[in-house]
Amino acid sequence: MRYRTFGHSGLRVSELILGAMTFGEQGGVGAPLPECERILDAYAEAGGNAIDTAINYRGGASEEILGELLRSRRERFVLGSKYTVSRDGGDPNAAGNHRKNLRASLDTSLRRLGTDYLDIYWVHIWDRSTPIDETMRALDDAVRAGKVLYVGISDAPAWIVARANTLAEWHGWSPFIGLQVPYSVLHRDIERELLPMAEALSLGVAAWSPLAGGVLSGKYTRAAGPQGANRLDADSLSERDHAAARAVQDVADELGATPSQVALAWTMARSPAVHPIVGARHLDQLRDNLGAADLTLPAAAVDRLDAAAGFAPGFPTDFIDQTSEWVFGAALVDRQARHR
């Protein structure tokens, strides 16, 4: 496993992040404690050092399980959790990004995780009702209190992230060092605004759902085909979904890899800022995913996967690209060459 500094920080994070959303059996199919221990051990043995959870995952069981499993090795991991989601549906102040919920949520997560600090504390989703300056100041207070080392944000528009970090710069507050967003061969929306912003502002990108909810894992392209409930899932997929899954399978067959490994490697090939989040309910799933760390996709394979599902950035990116030669003439600069 290779390591990179995460965003504009000195924090060393492994290229694959372990997602603990599956840790616990509450609220649906998940991994029991013994399997969670095997998953965490295998991840650590492969060199992985970053774990992502949230206050609401498995009704809190994810944090509690991690607290038990990390008890004797907490310092070896970059541990992150998230807040925003309601802790109590009947309490209007038990959700959101305001100071009161941040304080109560952070204390709850620290208690469950059995630690006195988090390496990264993430805003889980943008709260339109809370001023972003309130959130940034409250996060900075948590950093100054030593309960949080770094802060990040998940599932928010690019303009709010950029505004938040500008406010942090002006006021001397702790800025966001990372962004959590969905990213896969099938779902490339972040390439319109969020990924360019992250690269420009030196934010690390933790990519969730890099297998597009399992569509790119190979279960729909195996010779035997999906069975049972998976058969119904396959019937509900669009032709675009199937085309992307087939392209990933074809590249995997040519490279002697698995579809999951190819799909994960593609996200890292698209940008050095991206760290895919890998989650698993079973040890064999994790071991398969970890193989992506040893896979480098040829440029031709990346291009094939880029074209598989069809994607257009839309306005204004397409318009600027299409008119640049006419607008700038001899002053036109090759952006790619400039960064080589």
TrEMBL record:
Which UniProt key words apply to this protein? Oxidoreductase
Signal peptide start-end? none
Q: Which Gene3D superfamilies match?
A: NADP-dependent oxidoreductase domain
**One Pfam short name:** Aldo_ket_red
- The keyword Methyltransferase appears for this protein: no
Could you tell me which residue ranges the NADP-dependent oxidoreductase domain spans?
Answer: 15-308
**Protein name, per record:** Aldo/keto reductase
Q: Which taxonomic lineage is given here?
A: Bacteria, Bacillati, Actinomycetota, Actinomycetes, Micromonosporales
